[in-house]
């Protein structure tokens, strides 16, 4: 099975631009969408390239590249909202009625919102950190503050500080990873998306908007999720600390939680084998 970058790369035109993606796996009805997170230099491929071969053994896998991160065509609007609508457009374009989904951080929030608003499109949901409110930990977290500092005035030193906050084992942050993320982070579309999500001015506006809003936050609606849900978390996550898991674990009716020790925000990378085994069993069940 070819699970290389070039061998899996695809694109499809929609009414709001081209969505690019990676596809691998045998032809069957077991569809799995992999939804990436956010942050400097992120792409779906970089989040899941190490896991694709494993999941492609049992599922027809699609790594979806969200608009605004330098791969798929950008669209107007807030990145989290446009990511959710892009998943629906992607599924409609390929004739996918329903699929299991794995979402890393922001991708988990996207998956949760889809499961709330489009329950018929999400058969099973796996989240990797990032969903729910901070219960005991400060907000924004240490990792998000470092991300905000980088977004406001990008340089390599700030990028390294943020990358180190993403992991438990700093050896994961290689020179190659730093260079790869830096080159992608300075892409104009990616930089614009980052500013909208994590710049200090944007964060202040978001906090005011949430304070003045007359509708509940997304996490307060998680009781509406009907699909089986697996919440995965790194015990040492400094971006979305594990106390955030308490609310989704309580509110989602059919939810289970698995916490991985000696692991930061990138569970699918730092705890690769254990994560794949845990998620594989959940999807099979």
From TrEMBL:
Record-level GO cellular component terms: membrane
UniProt name for this protein: Pimeloyl-ACP methyl ester carboxylesterase
Domain AB hydrolase-1: 32-271
Record keywords, A-Z: Hydrolase
Signal peptide: none
Keyword Nucleotide-binding listed: no
PANTHER family, per the entry: AB HYDROLASE SUPERFAMILY PROTEIN YCLE, MONOACYLGLYCEROL LIPASE
Organism placement in taxonomy: Bacteria, Bacillati, Actinomycetota, Actinomycetes, Mycobacteriales
Highest taxon in the source lineage: Bacteria
A GO MF label: hydrolase activity
InterPro entries to which the protein is assigned, alphabetical: AB_hydrolase_1 (IPR000073), AB_hydrolase_fold (IPR029058), AB_hydrolase_sf (IPR050266)
